[in-house]
Amino acid sequence: MSKNRIKLNICGTDYIIVSDEKEEYMEEIAKEIDEAMNITLKNNMRVSVTMAAVLTALRYCDESKKSMADADNLRMQI
Hints:
By secondary structure, this protein is α+β, with helices and mostly antiparallel strands. The protein is 64% helix and 18% strand. A hairpin with a 2-residue loop joins strand 1 (4-10) and strand 2.
């Protein structure tokens, strides 16, 4: 699979990434992250962009782990 060089903008900062994923998919993810970080920034004016990024990463990691645990539980029930 060919690597795609993709420019993404998250919270006003451009990031150039190289990925096997399609550009549209990566842009969708970047948009979701940007929106989540902007909500965090709007809800607390004392939060920096870096803090918003960490809080967003923690939330997504938590969701991912819980989803994997749920999927494992469903597989065990089958």
